[in-house]
Write a structure and sequence with these properties.
The protein has about 120 residues and is an all-beta fold. Helix content is about 0%, strand content about 50%. The protein is built from no helices and 11 strands. Strands 2, 4, 5, 6, 9, 10 and 11 form a 7-stranded mixed sheet that branches. The protein has a 4-stranded antiparallel sheet with strand order 1-3-8-7, with no helix packed on it.
Length: about 120
């Protein structure tokens, strides 16, 4: 699976941004999809994940209630709608695919990664 994330940019605190990730290659609906983020000097951290058919979603506590993950298996895309953005949401955001049949928030459990897209939240 090849993943291409896009949609990053500069946004003011309190604003919204939508990230998208396009997948190509093997059957998209065979993978759980996740979004992670990373700031320089810190480990990559889990943000959100969605099950293979999009029924179940999972969120880090830090984004719960503000971010929404969704997928469209007909278009091979997974989106991350980010609302009420905070300064601490500034990071490079990565989409990733996991072949596991259960939810995981561990970086090591994701098999394929997109290149990352930078989101900068300004005051």
């Amino acid at each position: 699976v090849q993943l291409q994330a896009y949609g990053g940019g500069l946004v003011q605190a309190g604003g919204s941004r939508r990230l998208s990730c396009a997948a190509s290659g093997r059957a998209f609906n065979s993978y759980r999809m996740g979004w992670f983020r990373q700031v320089p000097g810190k480990e990559r951290e889990f943000v959100a994940a969605v099950s293979k058919i999009g029924v179940s979603t999972y969120y880090a506590d830090s984004v719960k209630g503000r971010f929404t993950i969704s997928r469209d298996n007909t278009k091979n895309t997974v989106d991350l709608q980010m609302n009420s953005l905070k300064l601490e949401d500034t990071a490079v955001y990565y989409c990733a695919a996991s072949a596991l049949s259960i939810h995981t928030s561990r970086v090591a459990d994701y098999d394929y990664w997109g290149q990352g897209t930078l989101v900068t939240v300004s005051s």
